[in-house]
């Protein structure tokens, strides 16, 4: 298949759904660990079409959503500081902190700028040597290579007014935390294709063996997801627990070695807090000691900031699949995209946003599907 519409072809999707239903001799529970996959599942109504055969629960796969409140508050402090140009991808601007968000800081006069690459932020630092330029380095392993390259280039070029506020997390420890959590119902995972395009899937193999679960590396279009679900269901029915690759057009077992090497050059594993989940050991990335001069937390003395998550926001329950967003008491009332309690209602990959914008309109034909 050469064109995107072919991955949304209902004449192929419907037989795949029928095959899944015929293969499943009992209901199975799978978790997708990617916010983009979540939005496809909800937008296309795949969860409804598979109801009774497969339950899809939505995991902590949205990088904006899992960024903890205290990192947002650190970003807000930096953005409000005189002489600082704070740069970020646009999806972070409306994530609420304890008192406001980055968009409000910008409205009050803070120098908050949207960039499309951390290298854009580095170039901004070169053009503005009188200012400190900080980039908000958020994301899973997918965005880590570009952020690592920006820091590497800053050192190589001798740019001293550039730093990064790091909030990187990694997927395998999150899978471990989910499998070890009380009341866990997950019986198999769809792994995020873009993460595995960078990292490969070898690090998932010990998890599949340890927890006796299938893990299928999956793309993001409806046919990708349906094929990934079918592969996982086949494993569950056969009693197998392996890592399989549905996303063969983009992912190899070894990932992208140059990108992995750059991550390892600049970052090292560290304990990291996740929104709603608390601290997961060795689940994040931090700058290596030789790059400490580019660590915004150290540079501006922000390491001591700790903040409790708002009690009313049930992000942790949503991110671990214990709660579907519409069942939250605040959903659509006290928590809306215009007045969010947490990042899950703001992010373009957040499960709460998906249900708010898409699921409430269900009943119409699945959006984007071609007949």
Summarize the structure.
This protein is α/β, with parallel strands linked by helices and 371 residues long.
Summarize this structure as a short list of keywords or feature phrases.
2 domains, 16 helices, Rossmann fold, globular, 11 strands
Name the strands of the widest sheet in spatial order. 4-3-5-6-11-10
The CATH class of the largest domain turns out to be Alpha Beta
CATH architecture classification of the largest domain: 3-Layer(aba) Sandwich
Q: What is the number of E strands?
A: 11
Arithmetic mean of pLDDT:
93
Low-confidence stretches: 363-371
What structural class do helix, strand and pairing data support?
Answer: alpha/beta
Please tally the helical runs, counting DSSP H or I stretches of 4 or more residues. Answer: 16
User: What is Rg?
Assistant: 21 Å
Word description of this protein:
The chain is α/β, with parallel strands linked by helices and 371 residues long. It folds into two domains: 1-310, HypD, alpha/beta domain 2 (Rossmann fold, 3-Layer(aba) Sandwich), CATH 3.40.50.11740; 315-361, no CATH class. 37% of the residues lie in helices and 18% in strands. The protein has helices spanning 10-23, 35-43, 46-49, 63-66, 69-79, 102-107, 118-127, 144-157, 171-180, 193-199, 205-211, 222-238, 257-266, 296-299, 315-319, 351-357, and strands at 28-32, 54-58, 84-88, 111-114, 132-139, 162-169, 188-192, 215-218, 243-245, 267-274, 278-287. Strands 4-3-5-6-11-10 form a six-stranded mixed beta sheet, sandwiched between helices. Strands 2-1-7-8-9 form a five-stranded parallel beta sheet. Helix 1 (10-23) runs parallel beside helix 12 and helix 7 packs parallel to helix 8. The protein starts with 9 loop residues before the first helix and ends in a 14-residue tail after the last helix.
